[in-house]
Write a structure and sequence with these properties.
The complex is a heterodimer of chains A (111) and B (112). Chain A has 111 residues and is an all-beta fold. Chain A contains no helices and 11 strands. In chain B, 0% of the residues lie in helices and 53% in strands. The chains are: A mainly beta (111), B mainly beta (112). At the A-B interface, strand 5, strand 9 and strand 10 of A face strand 4 and strand 9 of B.
């Protein structure tokens, strides 16, 4: 298995909802990443997990809560989001110092 | 973090070589240059990376200047399927992990 999968593909949520994004890889990668991408902009790093521990948090608001339950899974828990949080959320994985493989993304709309 | 500068858009004729430039004048000695492309809001796709030497793989070639302040991605025989946004990226080390610092990207259009 050489791909990163993300579910759901699309998500619409209200500002009071709680939802989660899921990312999975079975390539034995020990680093996993969350990025946020607004329309016509490059991806921006949010979080990095290395060996299931949070290594980097790019000053992301606490309404985004990452979780890495094991080396293959990465979740992003969402609560009390704002309309400006609407974006494409990308997950990636890599060996700790290798090239990153990206998933197809979850397109999130916050109403 | 080191940053990259790319032209916002370029055109190339199908079958010709596409040469995409990138400036990274503040890159540090141990920071790699990576190139990814993104087709119509899919996930970015890895193309190639390098540190000092020129690199070639089945997709592209990467030419890095001797002072490492700029590089060029070369797609040798562009096809319509190469139409995408191409990102020049510096990979930096931070807090025991690796970060990709994306440039603004070049929108490459391959014309028939």
């Amino acid at each position: 298995d050489t791909e990163v999968t993300q579910t759901p593909k699309h998500l619409v949520m209200g500002m009071t909802n709680k939802k989660s994004l899921k990312c999975e890889q079975h390539m034995g990668h020990r680093a996993m990443y969350w990025y946020k991408q607004k329309a016509k902009k490059p991806p921006e790093l949010m979080f990095v997990y290395s060996y299931e521990k949070l290594s980097i948090n790019e000053s992301v608001p606490s309404r985004f809560s990452p979780e890495c339950p094991n080396s293959s899974l990465l979740n992003l828990h969402l609560h009390a989001l704002q309309p400006e949080d609407s974006a494409l959320y990308l997950c990636a994985s890599s060996q700790v110092s290798g090239e990153q493989s990206f998933g197809p993304g979850t397109r999130l709309t916050v109403l | 973090d080191a940053k990259t500068t790319q032209p916002p858009s370029m055109d190339c004729a199908e079958g010709r070589a596409a040469n995409l430039p990138c400036n990274h004048s503040t890159i540090s000695g141990n920071e790699y240059v990576y190139w990814y492309r993104q087709i119509h809001s899919q996930g970015p796709q890895y193309i190639i990376h390098g540190l000092k030497n020129n690199e070639t793989n089945e997709m592209a070639s990467l030419i890095i200047t001797e002072d490492r302040k700029s590089s060029t991605l070369i797609l040798p025989h562009a096809t319509l399927r190469d139409t995408a946004v191409y990102y020049c990226i510096v990979r930096v080390s931070a807090q025991g992990a690796q970060k990709l610092v994306f440039g603004q990207g070049t929108r490459l259009t391959i014309n028939p």
